[in-house]
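so my prof wants the structure for this chain in the tokens format not the other one, which i didnt know existed until like an hour ago. anyway here's the sequence
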Amino acid sequence: MKITLSPLYTDAKGTSDKITIARNHYGLYSKLCPKPYDPNTTYQQGFRIDFKYFSQFYNNLTSDDRQTWIDAATSIVFHRDFKDSYKPTAQALFISCNINRKIFGGSLLYTFQQPFISQQFFQIKLSFDPYFNHIKFDFKPIQNDQNYFYKIFITKNLSPGIFYKKNDFKFIETLQPHHSSLILSDATYYARTNQHFTPNCKIFIKSIPVDYGSGITFMPLHQSVIL
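here's what i got, hopefully its the right format
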């Protein structure tokens, strides 16, 4: 016998209290609605200032300098989350490279610089310590690590069956090759995400290698750990 659901259920959508009801190509689903996080963290404010500065600076480049970015943009690929890639504009490439170099005091790049290409980046082992309530990152250095630093981002699944959100990663830390480990405490996690660690929750980590010399980013490494 065919079961017909009430329109009150099948047409439901939106957010009520802490639950969001939505629909995708699999059908209707519900998920927890996360608390809003502060959009004015120090990292975000600094990023917006740098983005505006380098956007304006690009327009002041000489035609020869700008052409190096235009030529490079035809062959450079940026990687979004989960292996989704795209080709940046020349201006976007200029901004991204210079923001990345600025993190550790690199001078402004007027022309595009070829990155150092590695066949492999360092390996990260994740573990959760329930006693101290923190996530530990252990790094296994490999050859050529000195040419890169790493930008670490974090998110977590919002409810069972919803494993990740593409644009929900929050910046946590930058790591240099001489680091052997990193501790992510619940307090730091809360400061970045406005949420605490919760038992049996899956945390997703995105590590983005960045070439020191050129500011170019490479394919993110995605990992997870269950609390």
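also thought this was worth mentioning. Residues 42-58 form the longest helix (17 residues).
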